């Protein structure tokens, strides 16, 4: 019989006879490192074939990590209340967002911050961002005109500018540029450490720290400005935090802002770029998107665009197919735990294996095929479709991303003269910290206004 959780105090949970962690590969620390950096998704797929939909990855001195891609197990292990389980927040972001940031918090502290951050990321406040998305894309396209650059860089600039707008409201142009530049420099150093100007790992950390301090000083100035702002109708995040009751400390505000600025653009940029690449590969799908948009007329309201069923299905399929975030945050089992004949010692890390769920042929027949129809034919259950993760740690920016993605896609795909080069079939996503993104070989250009090449 299945024991949902051990009724004994964690440390005294008896280990049932024969119960062990689910089976899985045993790698040395070096093999684990190589697997994680060079062939992560293919390796996970091979392990799932060899060991089944719940397998354990043992590597060097790291705690055992259990990858779960069985929907029933996802429901049982992640969707039920797991507030007491810590999360092994991604190591990439720790030097930038700090150890007290949302992905590293647990229990009441985690819940309180989620509640605090929710209003500016939901409902009317998100829907009011339609004109900002449009304005940002217009500026970016003006800058692109007559030039060619990696598609992912264009996507990043769009999503980064939007999250800066969500965080601070409409800033004077120079100030917004300054903030965006600092964040781009931080991301470049995190993901392309070769860009650092020498000094080895310590030098890299020092450079990142210097930039983080500049962003924090920037946030501090904006907090002061928000507290003194006579405008009671401001809807940005910093005003919400700085004038809330009870107000968080300046240090806490800086931490929350940093978390959302970093987590809130990379992912959406990769999803947008992947969706554009798929539309380039599938002219039939692209035409259908255009026809649906044409049906709304020239001045369609953002609220109407984001509700278009086929466009929504294309975005959902891009999130499924592109595996932008291939795994959720690792949950750390606080005390020994028995479930379904398995025994998980304290410290075991459980991971929702999002990529593997999305590639299950029983849930998504012919999973490698890009097919938005899947999302029109049936309503997909939460344990079958989880691009934003699940349970108490589900992405707090999901509503914003699901608003921004179709709007940006609709605008870009219908821009006359916008051209992708290097969009060959079979392009593989590349690892970029905890996200998967498209390679820089995929380029975008925009014809000059006078039509010359
Ligand atoms: C297409 C875009 C996005 C995707 C695919 C995505 C995906 C995810 C996933 C899979 C997680 C982990 C959830 C889990 O472990 O169950 C997550 C967490 C998180 N995301 Fe997103 N995300 C996106 C956009 C955003 C945006 C726009 C923001 C901010 C405005 C954001 C902020 C965060 C934060 C702060 C967490 C940590 C949540 C916690 O620890 O409670 N994300 N996201």
TrEMBL record:
Residues spanning the membrane: none
Cofactor(s) the record lists: heme
SUPFAM superfamilies in UniProt: Cytochrome P450
Region described as Disordered: 1-23
InterPro entries: Cyt_P450, Cyt_P450_CS, Cyt_P450_E_grp-I, Cyt_P450_sf, Cytochrome_P450_monoxygenase
Keywords associated with the record: Heme, Iron, Metal-binding, Monooxygenase, Oxidoreductase
Family, as annotated: Belongs to the cytochrome P450 family.
PANTHER family xref list: CYTOCHROME P450, CYTOCHROME P450 12A4, MITOCHONDRIAL-RELATED
The protein, known as: Cytochrome P450
Organism expressing this protein natively: Streptomyces beihaiensis
Upper classification of the organism: Bacteria, Bacillati, Actinomycetota, Actinomycetes, Kitasatosporales
